[in-house]
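sanity check this:
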Amino acid sequence: MKRKYRELCEQEPTIPIFSKPWWLDSVCGESNWGVCMVENNNQIIATMPYYMAKRYGFTYLTQPPLTQTLGPWLRASEAKYNKVLGQQKDLMQALIEQLPNYDYFIQNWHYNNTNWLPFYWKGFKQTTRYTYVINDLTDLDRVYAEFEHSKRKNIKKCEGIVDIIYDIPFDIFYENHKMTLAKQGSNISYSKALFKKVYEEGYSNGCAKTIGAYDKDQNLHAALFVIWDDMSAYDLISTIDPDYRRHGAASLLIKEIIKYVSVKTKKFDFEGSMIEPVEASFRQFGAKQTPYSQVTKDNSRMLSFAKAINSLIR
């Protein structure tokens, strides 16, 4: 089945980058992910990849690290709306039936997937979350005009302070992110080995870029790691040194990377955050609030009990 899925992804540009086999191989390991698939007349019409992880004796179908979305992909239909909804119900329920046994399921779906009702009918739950998206990169003057005045002011100020450098090596980027998080009392959430895989595969597939802002003393003020597919670019990782935050390099990098990806894709996704200050920053770039679904299901009473006890302890 994976062979067929790999062939499909080579031909189908509407499958998001986070569901591509090369991405899943990188972040999951080739043996730790699978895919549900529905075919009709020798044509694949629905898929849903999943990542399987074992924790404390429980089986999770969950989000892989560094992965914004998974969820179903359904081939576009030209049928009438009523018919399309019926098709979606049948296809999604067929995908659900193919899932391996699990104790807990959680996936963040791409915002294009607005119909989770067939999963509700099978006992799943949903939480609405938000990302922020610039939906059209064809007119960069219009895109930049939508930036808040404070962002444009920071960008202009920073242009005389730093130089923009592309293709920062993965180890320099990683260590800088680790260092900047430590300055803020936080630990990095992904390993260097994992980032190396994603970095190398992204560059190998021609859909990844690092960009950084260095001052004249070679201090790295901020850096971004961005990936893209035919539909959208994604601000996957941002690193900002708090010692230089006031200089505005992060805003300048956003402007520069939007210009870079505008000839490669259609949209720019900030990989939205539910954290209030981060949300405010994304909004100031003129990005539109875009809801997406987090879909969950708990199949284990024991796991539910353990989670309830843990929440009481906290």
